[in-house]
Amino acid sequence: MPEALEVSMVQSVAGALPGGRISQTRPYRSPHHSASMAALVGGGLRVKPGEVSLAHLGILFLDELPEFQRAVLDSLRQPLETGEVSVARANAHVTFPARVQLVAAMNPCRCGHLADPALACSRAPRCAADYQAKVSGPLLDRIDLHVDVAAVTAADLVLPPPSEGSTQVAVRVATARAIQTARSADCGNARTNAELEGKALEAVATPDEPGRELLAQAAAAMKLSARGYTRVLRVARTIADLSGSESIGRVHIAEALSYRRRAPVN
């Protein structure tokens, strides 16, 4: 109920609360890539929350990520780091909550056929480097999971369904979330692993010795920032929760590292 009140208050300020009733579902927002900075993070003459606040405690989906204006995307860096957005105007200074799960999608290059030499444009692979460079490094550093998804072929559509369906995955996720909620009782105001900071994170996400050795080696080899290092620990803690493990081992650290940002295309 407290989370429902938070979501409903933001929607009320934005004039988007249906029927004046408390919202019982987590928000999902998917703004078009032509959205302005004010539309995404909030603003206007009479300051209102933007998409990142309207997605508070829900999902903000940005499709065709590099097609957004770079300055607009970089305006998300503070909200993704702190879970809130501050809008300063001559007549007002307002802070809105913005604790979101950011999901972004993009093609590897503008033509979208980088992996297929027969269809790729004449500038490949240079075009991929230029296209991906439209998203800044600091923003990418704030995205915990980078997953390459192969194109779906017609042959893929006739394959049998996976052994673990969405229903089973949902149960595992709900169980892991319940573990985090119970753990957060001793971690201040944190509700999920993503919100753990400082000593609270150290208390629950310190890996075993093999895990620490791997993380130290990877931090040097991958040139992880302090932010990246902390985010690897949070992801590893979540992976361990999904597998039902109380401690974080080398296998959890290895999987978390596999999701960090890949090296740019040369």
Describe this structure in words.
The protein is mainly α. It has helices at residues 2-13, 37-41, 51-54, 70-74, 77-82, 126-132, 137-141, 166-184, 198-205, 209-221, 226-242, 250-258; strands at residues 28-29, 59-62, 84-89, 92-97, 101-104. The protein folds into three domains: 1-106, P-loop containing nucleotide triphosphate hydrolases (Rossmann fold); 108-143, no CATH class; 166-258, Helicase, Ruva Protein, domain 3, CATH 1.10.8. The protein has twelve helices and five strands. It has a three-stranded parallel sheet with strand order 1-2-5. The longest helix has 19 residues, at 166-184. It is globular and about 50 Å long. The mean pLDDT is 89.
What is the fold-level CATH name, i.e. the topology of the largest domain? Rossmann fold
What CATH architecture label of the largest domain applies? 3-Layer(aba) Sandwich
CATH class of the largest domain: Alpha Beta
Largest sheet: 3 strands, parallel
Q: Enumerate the spans where pLDDT stays under 50 for 5 or more consecutive residues.
A: none
**Number of β-strand runs:** 5
Major sheet: arrangement of strands: 1-2-5
Shape: globular
Considering DSSP H and I runs of 4 or more, what fraction of the residues is helical?
40-55%
Element order, helices and strands?
HEHHEHHEEEHHHHHHH
Rg, alpha carbons: 20 Å
Q: Please indicate the percent range of residues in DSSP E strands (runs of 2 or more).
A: 5-15%
Number of helices: 12
The mean pLDDT is 89
How many domains would you count in the coordinates?
3
How far is the N terminus from the C terminus?
Answer: 49 Å
The computed structural class is mainly alpha
CATH superfamily of the largest domain: P-loop containing nucleotide triphosphate hydrolases
